[in-house]
Amino acid sequence: MSAAREIAVGLLVLGVYVACTQAFAGDRPVSDAHGRWLLDAERWAHLDAERPLNDLLARHDRLGALAAWEYATTYVIGTFGLLGYLWWRRSPVYAWARNTLILVTLIAVCCFALWPATPPRLLPGEGYLDVIAVHHPVATWGTGVVSAGANPYAAMPSLHIGWVAWTGVVALRARCGALIGWLCALHLAVTGLVIVATAAHYVLDIPGGLLLVPAAAGAERLRAALVRRRRDGDRRVAAADAFFLHVESRDVPQVVGGVAEFAGPGPSAADLRALMAERLPNLPRLAQRVRPAGTLRRARWTDAERIDLDWHVRELDLPPAGGRRALDDLVARLVAEPLDPARPLWRFWLVRRGPDGRDAVVVLLHHAIADGIGVVDILRRILEPRLPEAPDARGPGGLARAVAAVPGMVLLGLDGAAPAVAITGRTGPDRGFGTLTLPLRRVRAVARAADARVTDLLLALVGEVVADVLAARGEPVAGRRLRAAVPLTLRAPAPPGRGRTAVPGNLTAALRLDVPVDGRPVRDRLAAAHRSAERRRRSGRAAASTAAIRLMGALPPALHARAARAAYRSRFFGAIVSNMPGPPVPLSMAGAPLGDVHPILPLADGVPLAVGALSWNGSLHVAVTAEPRALPEAAGFPDGLARAFDRLARELGADAGPGRGGARTGTP
Description:
By secondary structure, this protein is α+β, with helices and mostly antiparallel strands. It folds into 2 domains: 3-234; 239-417 and 427-490 and 507-665, Nonribosomal peptide synthetase, condensation domain (Chloramphenicol Acetyltransferase), CATH 3.30.559. It has 21 helices and 15 strands. The chain has helices at 3-23, 28-44, 50-59, 61-88, 94-114, 131-134, 159-173, 178-197, 205-235, 239-246, 269-279, 309-312, 323-335, 372-382, 398-415, 440-449, 454-473, 522-537, 541-553, 557-567, 637-652, and strands at 255-262, 288-291, 300-303, 313-317, 346-352, 360-366, 432-439, 481-489, 508-516, 575-581, 588-589, 592-600, 609-616, 619-626, 664-665. A 7-stranded mixed beta sheet has the order 9-8-10-13-14-7-15, sandwiched between helices. A 6-stranded mixed beta sheet has the order 4-5-6-1-12-11, sandwiched between helices. It has a two-stranded antiparallel sheet with strand order 2-3. Strand 13 (609-616) and strand 14 form a beta hairpin. The longest helix has 31 residues, at 205-235. It is elongated, with a radius of gyration of 35 Å. The two termini are 57 Å apart.
């Protein structure tokens, strides 16, 4: 700590002590009764040395004055002199000494409040001479019968003894030498005689004061253990992150990320590896791997002994003739492979597409590292230019979320299973991936025309395409709804011109929103989806979902895994739809400017469809991840979404700007 901070801490502790000793208005008869009880106990045990020693000082004024001076000064000089010396020498014992001194003081204050006892010199009818008041030392604090810092309820334990005993223990711990040790012992003996002779304390207050030191040492040991536990707990995989470790399987890898095309040639693999080597110290999760959970041991983040950037950053060639379709097919193959749990859970793939195609980079991270917006924040810390970071602000406080979660829990339970929709089914290992890019300004104009959110618009478009799929299959659609899991971020928006701190982890709530998949017009579908979504957003279900995830995390790992897998499957939702804000400015990677950036979302058990949207540099980049055996129609999803958007714009009369020709699509 700096000197200013140390002084501030010292003044704070002193303020607490003075406030408690002076402002505490105890029951004086009770305090007097406790004092007489101590005196009676000493007389019974033949320990009552207060009277003869006090009479000795009463007969010898000079000895009384010396005792009063010693009582008022030496324990303060010795205590803070030693503490200041340790701080000046930057002794490794200093932190322990400072903390235990604070604890000695605070424990004594608690004792005074819980068991007040009047000192002998202030005990009515006992006739002790108040030596300190008679021989008030020059240049010491206090006036009148009671010194200004003294407490008429603070006999047991003796804080004088506690502080002086503390100096001896600290001197031994700091190896100050035999001479200092003997001086501390002498100081303790003299202080014991003085506090009894001045009738400031009882003899029994001496062992009480001595016990303050081991009590403070024990409290400091407990505090340090809690700090270590909290620090280790920070390395424990949080419940919301462990959730995605538990729901992962060979057929359902939990991989998030993005695929970005460069505006021109991409950087070299060596340049990208150098960039990652530079950025990794500020992105700790990318330098850690997961130590798996056991029967009772929870999963933890552990520092990787070695990060093989040649493995994490790979380069491959893709024939340019396939166009965007070939790139999407490559992404589909990459996301179908789980990441290696023995390494940090991320990989970058540099894709070379020859002179006739734009290079690309595929960024893959495990969902346990971050949610979708967390991935965007991590990428922004990697890309240039370096933006100043905003504080790690989050959404509503814990109390507000807890209050909202109470009714939300009830409603969440009443939601029950998701409506049956024919597209759900067992998820296999294969993946399809397709992309769509829409002008962001036009998307927002259409959403405003419908008085809805962009997320609601995205839900309606997905519902429109699923309705077309069901109609083409000849499935009955009357009254049918698709329930989608929609993540809601708990991260506060970044101020203009600044980026959020790249805080790892899943800081999201989840809503399950319904969109009709019958034959109604897409405009009516959007209106119905918006009404349903607004009711659920206000219902407390989002806070309840966060609370449920945390409650699951309190279970033993095996039960946590079972609960997570039971909750994250097609029984409760049939699709995943996520809308994520990205940077509104162009960015580059290792000096190479980026163009389109599409998000990558994972699937859930039995849920064959995930649609993610990312606003980035003036466009809404939509990506569709699908399981092709359960949803063979997914190949047409990007084009279907583009057609549905055009229909919606026409129905709302918001068709200004480029038509479908302004959308760029790829297919799973």
